[in-house]
Specification:
This protein is mainly α. The chain has five helices and two strands, in the order H-H-H-H-E-H-E. The relative contact order is 0.15.
Length: 106
Amino acid sequence: MTKSLLSFQRWLVRKAGWLALPAFFFFSACAPLPETPVETGAAYQQAGLPTSERVEDLLGRMSLSEKIGQMTLVEKDSIANADIRDLHIGGLLSGGGGYPADNSPQ
């Protein structure tokens, strides 16, 4: 198990308590696989093909860990940038006090 996966699991247990226990065991079984180069001209990149064919091609190329990561939404202040990449996180939430810092001109 990678260090970032372990840290995410610890974070999940701290935030969600015992309700996160099933997720902890699920993520334990989903160690990241080595990255493979993207094939040029892959079916999922061809806009002329039917959507169902493109989806099947893309999902067939993804590991279970990548699929889970893409369905995971994490509050933006609760995860390190490296974990977003390493765990293939699909989106960040900004809410419940996690609003962006003020960037108004002074």
